[in-house]
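Re: that backbone. Tokens:
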């Protein structure tokens, strides 16, 4: 069973930065894509960003492009989300997720939905 544990959330002022971390138990990392999703107050959960197993493919939601950066360290079983220039509308619970994705898969639809494993989430609050 895959386990995902997020950390790094907190309260930050608008314009500030936070880095979220996700520790995972995936051993066959060469076949797993990792993603970050978020669910704001009164909103549905939405895709934020995703990364292929080797970091060669990354996708971002338009709302975070240029401000957020996803990365992963397979040697440490970690995935990171660096969030800069935070806005109040970024306030949400942020979830780390994982899914099996065959190598040489490039379709954005594959990386942006239907994840198999989820963490418990970490709260990010951006004050204005």
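Recovered sequence:
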């Amino acid at each position: 069973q895959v386990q995902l544990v997020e950390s790094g959330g907190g309260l930050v002022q608008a314009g500030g930065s936070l880095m979220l971390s996700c520790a995972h138990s995936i051993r066959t990392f060469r076949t797993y894509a990792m993603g970050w999703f978020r669910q704001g107050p009164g909103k549905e959960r939405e895709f934020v960003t995703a990364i292929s197993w080797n970091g060669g493919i990354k996708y971002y939601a338009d709302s975070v492009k240029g401000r957020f950066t996803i990365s992963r360290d397979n040697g440490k079983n970690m995935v990171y989300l660096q969030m800069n220039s935070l806005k109040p509308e970024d306030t949400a619970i942020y979830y780390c997720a994982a899914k099996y994705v065959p190598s040489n898969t490039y379709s954005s639809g594959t990386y942006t939905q239907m994840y198999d494993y989820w963490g418990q989430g970490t709260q990010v609050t951006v004050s204005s």
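Residues 2 and 67 are 29 Å apart (CA to CA). The chain has a mean pLDDT of 95.
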